[in-house]
Specification:
This protein has 348 residues and is mainly beta. The chain has helices spanning 2-14, 289-295, and strands at 23-37, 55-69, 73-86, 94-107, 111-123, 129-140, 146-159, 167-179, 184-200, 213-228, 232-244, 251-263, 269-280, 301-310, 315-328, 333-347. It has one domain: Maltoporin, Chain A (Beta Barrel), CATH 2.40.170.
Amino acid sequence: MSRFLSTLLLAGLVLPGGARAADMEGSLRLTGRALMDSNAPRDFHAPQAPTPQPDLGLSLLATGEGRLTGESFQGVGRYELGGRKYVRYPSEDVVIQAAAVEGSMALGTQLGLGVEGHGKDRRGGSRDYSDLGAEAFLEYVPDVRLALRIRAGAHRFVYRPDAGANFGGSEVGFLGRYRFDRRHSLSVFGEYGSRGYGVQARPPPDENLSLGRRQDGALSAGATYTYRGPVALGLTYTFQEISSNSFGETVDRHRLSGSAGLKLAWNVTLLAQGSLGLGRYPDGIYLSPEIILVEEDEGQNSLSLKLARPVNEHLDLELNYGLYSTRLPRNELSYLRQVAGLGLTWRL
């Protein structure tokens, strides 16, 4: 709720006494799901090694969104609170919160200036972390077809099981979108972040060197094509490079992901998402906390399907399935996870 209060406060600063009242809108959504998870601990395993036992669970997710639009100001806020409870692996029970707020002000008819903040806090299991960021941005929108945004900010990551994975630093990025017509659009994006750690950099094996504190550079860039017609389609390519002065922490990743949504018979909607990833580890693969965090939800390769059918104006019945996999060829470790769920979503 504090995010929405912040939005209201910002609007009060922007809209003086004689300005017209701001327009407000919002939504609330609650989803409950019973699920079966084939790898609740999300463990990597070697060939011939025993695999985790399937587990049953229950998940709940509440999402609230709000928007406040004034004569020259817009504020947007979003908050999510979710939890997951397992039967066989209670150590993997989690509570997750995520929030984002953005406020922007028009500077004439084509420029906008704004600030954004976002955060995620995950408690429970072996992946217990907080991820925080704040930034300022400048946006250029000459017409409805083109939008450009540049931004600069700060990023802080705290991983509670291993303080050696904590980092902080600055980030810069850009986003450009061009809409060819009402159905076709293309976006390009890029980001670079400088990350400083509180631990010493690891030297190469058999070398007794002092490299000082660990420093990483995180570069990502890509493009997205979207189509909105009888079928909604999206295709994204992303390249990510993390270069580190600490041995074993450098990685390059290529990722191709796509999504599709369409209406089926009996008022059923099908949503599908898939991705293919390729990772390269120049120094070899070390199962550092960061690698585990990156792979825990998506894996290098993934496929998810969702069937939804409205029961009434506010209630939807949903059936979900997800498949996630990763293979680390140098040490023959692999990660495989399948999740199936049946649930209800209530919307207001």
